[in-house]
Write a structure and sequence with these properties.
By secondary structure, this protein is mainly beta. It contains two helices and 25 strands. The protein has two domains: 1-39 and 308-382, no CATH class; 40-307, TolB, C-terminal domain (Neuraminidase, 6 Propeller). The protein has helices spanning 2-22, 103-106, and strands at 27-28, 35-44, 47-52, 58-62, 66-71, 74-75, 94-99, 108-117, 120-131, 134-143, 156-158, 163-168, 193-198, 219-222, 226-232, 238-243, 249-254, 291-293, 299-304, 317-321, 326-333, 336-345, 349-355, 361-366, 373-380. It binds calcium ion (CA).
């Protein structure tokens, strides 16, 4: 399995070179709205997440461990202080940042990161109060029981009813041998799960596995690989995108207690060799994805769009793609995808997609080697 990991990195590096060649000339595809791409801020190292604060400030996490403030359109030199030390190796680092829904009154930021634990790391959720340029009253709300290499998951979303969702990846546990014994199929840990907590980190009593012995009560859904897109729609439905293996990226509608099948079922194959991973694409008791990407775009960042700036995209999902260097626009009809279009190609590796208070679409672009990159936005052209 180590060998196939190495092959995967080689393939991805080749894609990154292609990205740099085309990054200057992104191809914008109309999809019923005309728009241009503007640079919001430049000089960021592996920006992972974008967040908007009341009053106009914008926050960006940089994976090496910095929380950056953008004020009046300019990147503030000094990072926000008080952020925990991160495990800044491989895929690890500072990940998501989302303000509490009542941030205007409580100043609370929720942040995920790869927390150093022993020789390794795990996914953890903290919250802290933004006070000037500093995070104070920092408290840990959740530490995943999920030791491993990469695949941290780490997206955060509030449902507006007092709950916070966090995604946790399968920590790159290799799928081999008895697929049902893979940690993503074992609910005594948090590998490959979406967890649901109260906003103070306590476990809601109506979580699906509360009271079941040998099952972590934080688990809302399981059988995921590496969910790095998370968005809740206007009807309260929870959507994730997850990285599959080669040819197996998925959009899933997350419903309590469901098993999404990784690695027993899926559409992917092993990187490089193209050999089979799964027993098939479906099994009774395992939830089929709403949408799959074959070939993979390496999904990261997911936005359910509700803004006025692009009326034709209201109620649609926008999914970022790292390897695919694109934003995929998914036209939804209830809980079905009826059409997929590509909005932007060749922008670079899309790590995050967010809606600004202006309704514009903000995109964090990263570079695999850590060269400085940008946050850009899609702005309508009338
Ligand atoms: Ca699946």
């Amino acid at each position: 399995m180590k060998r196939s990991t190495t092959i995967a990195l080689t393939v991805a590096t080749t894609l990154s070179v292609t990205a740099q060649a085309s990054a200057q000339d992104p191809v914008m595809l109309s999809a019923h709205e005309d728009y241009r791409i503007e640079t919001v801020v430049d000089g960021l190292v592996n920006p992972w997440s974008i967040a908007f604060l009341p009053g106009g400030d914008m926050l960006v996490t940089e994976r090496p461990g910095r929380l950056r403030m953008v004020r009046d359109g300019r990147l503030v030199d000094a990072p926000v202080r008080g952020v925990p030390e991160v495990f800044a190796r491989g895929q690890g680092g500072l990940m998501d940042v989302v303000p509490h829904p009542d941030f205007a009154s409580n100043r609370l930021l929720y942040i995920t990161y790869s927390k150093p634990v022993g020789d390794g790391s795990t996914t953890a959720l903290i919250r802290g109060r933004l006070d000037g340029g500093r995070l104070t009253d920092v408290e840990e709300l959740f530490e995943a029981n999920s030791q491993g290499a990469g695949h941290y998951g780490s997206r955060i979303a509030f449902d507006g009813n007092g709950h916070v969702f966090v995604t946790v990846g399968d920590r790159q546990a290799p799928p081999r041998g008895d697929l049902e014994s893979h940690p993503a199929q074992d609910r005594s840990n948090h590998h490959g799960t979406v967890v649901r907590l109260h906003e103070d980190g306590s476990v809601p009593s109506d979580n699906p596995f509360v009271g079941q012995s040998g099952v972590r009560p934080e688990i809302w859904t399981w059988g995921h690989r590496n969910p790095q897109g998370l968005s809740i729609d206007r009807d309260g439905r929870v959507w994730i995108t997850e990285h599959g293996p080669q040819g197996g990226d998925e959009l899933n509608l997350v419903e309590p207690g469901n098993n999404y099948g990784w690695p027993v079922v899926g559409y992917g194959v092993n990187y490089g060799s193209g050999s089979a991973i799964h027993e098939g694409t479906m099994r009774e008791g395992m939830t089929h994805p709403t949408h799959v990407w074959v070939p993979s775009i390496a999904t990261s960042g997911l936005l359910y769009y509700t803004g006025d700036a692009f009326p034709a995209w209201q109620g649609h999902l926008l999914a970022g793609g790292l390897g695919g260097q694109q934003i995929a626009l998914l036209t939804m009809d209830g809980d079905e995808v009826v059409k997929e279009e590509t909005l932007v190609l060749g922008l670079g590796r899309v790590r995050d997609v967010r809606q600004g208070p202006d309704g514009f679409i903000y995109v964090a672009v990263e570079d695999r080697r850590g060269a400085p990159t940008r946050v850009v936005r899609l702005v309508p052209v009338r």
